[in-house]
Amino acid sequence: MSAQPLRVLSVIPPMTQLNTPYPSTAYLTGFLRSRGMTAVQEDLALALVLKLLSREGLDAVARHIDTLPVLSHTPSIQAFVAQRNQYLGTITATIAFLQGRDTTLAHRIAGRHYLPEGPRFSSLDVYIDEDGGDPLGWAFGALGLHDRAKHLATLYLNDLSDVLRDAVDPRFEFVRYAESLAASQPTFDPLAEALAAPPNLVDDTLRKLTLAAIERHQPTVVLLSVPFPGSVYAAFRIAQTIKAAHPHIVTVLGGGFVNTELRELSDPRVFDHVDYVTLDAGERPLLALLAYIQGERSRQRLVRTFLRDAETGLVRYVNMVEPDVAFAEVGTPTWDGLPLDRYLSLLDMLNPMHRMWSDGRWNKLTVAHGCYWKKCSFCDVSLDYIGRYEGASAIVLADRVDAIVKETGQTGFHFVDEAAPPKALKALATELIARNTGISWWGNIRFEKTFTPDLCELLADSGCIAVSGGLEVASDRLLSLMKKGVSVDQVARVTRAFTDAGILVHAYLMYGFPTQTVQDTVDALEYVRQLFANGCIQSGFFHRFTCTVHSPVGQNPEEYGVTLRPLPPVSFAKNDIGFDDPTGVDHDALGVALRKAIYNFMHGIGLEEDVRSWFPFKVPKTTVSRHRIERALGQPA
Q1: Do the beta carbons of residue 336 and residue 29 sit within 8 Å?
Q2: Strand 276-278's sheet: what is its strand order?
């Protein structure tokens, strides 16, 4: 291998988030620099969106639409064509507004006479009161001008996303971009076919951005971090571009999707595009790989790395067992090189807690590696990102916070742990208060009894503004089966303690868990209604349970009363697995009602109604006492 000086470029491929950088490249860049290596980073997800959503980009979209038959025009395309000049005339200023660079534009946007309005604006109709008044008045009142404008501008961008999807690339979305090509796909065939197809406007734009980044940084190694299935296709397009133009550059694929779904990778075609694929925490495999590239270690001494054998053409997995780099020694993430003033603060959901995922640029940081609980039966507890729990001292964490604030000039933090440990949070909060750090932070926790009112007050004093946690199914029977280690009453008291401390609370909710009946589902919704009505939670989201091969349910289905369906032969991605539940419940039909109910609850609507009213078909009456949560709150912890 070459002994030339290494220059490592870490890339965030489309799509991840638009309001803040995904943290993987910041961690890798900070770690490599702490080891004296030359490391840089690029967010091509943001770059692609900003290029497409520019006057030049929209003009290219418009010219492409001119080549399409009129009969193929969807309502989104029709609205764009009819208001083409308005879109071209407003896109530059609107992007600047969402980047916080042109705040006075809020007055014109909020007036509803500046932005062209497409089908997405029809969502405002649900807010019009009986007198035909201001459809957003309930949310923003007489003031709230900036947020009102931000919400309208977000609808405007969503309209444009629909145009790109309908006219240019049917797989296009701001987050879940082409994810069906990768998520739990047993073979590489769908991706291979897509990559062999002629490039469309989105592909060509990404190709030009990739070549410009390579020219700018002149890397010898490119790391492609793919956290989600929705970033896999674009990552391969980037790798494809690099291989065609700069075959000498080493390309490496890693990240959350790889760690979860590609553990049984055997398709050699993957390596037509990338040279190596690494698993789990990237620091140790990366050090070994870079040493190999520089001729300082043999191929047999690589760590958790897939490659294609040059002699046989077959995929090999090489794993010389070495201890991972300690979490306390991975260094401080750095955002140096990322355009922090160009991210877009979006306001999709008007709920004050729910908006945090898309609004504002948060410095993402991890309090501890893995999960200290690691027992939940639906979770991938057998994988490294959950199963290997490791923390760092409060002093180390606070030092990282200080360094990040100094670098970015921004004091908002999102702690991205699977579940931040209460003991570590207490120690960190105490240290932050002692240093008078003055940050704002939020993160994911477990609703366990350790979070007493006193601890919640301490966390609030340190800057905690919101927490999210898994209530999953609000049923003590199912919570026990899930091994959550909490009860509904306990969740009520803990969440209320956070709320009383001025901390917003979001609950992750689940439906369709093994043996969950219709009665269980109705009862769970009643619990959730009462949690909202009693001020315990302010936000929530119902998602459908998915069985994965790495979870206790997937590994021991008989313990949960279900039978797994056989998987086809796997040479690429393996994660989700179908199962048969003897209850025979139509969870998809129930899910529509659950999502409708939670959406309304988050906006303060329907909190006094019988939960059966949300279902368009007959369901049993809840067995939960109407004052169950109220009574739980009156009991001592």
Answers
A1: yes
A2: 38-43, 7-12, 221-225, 250-254, 276-278, 305-308, 315-318
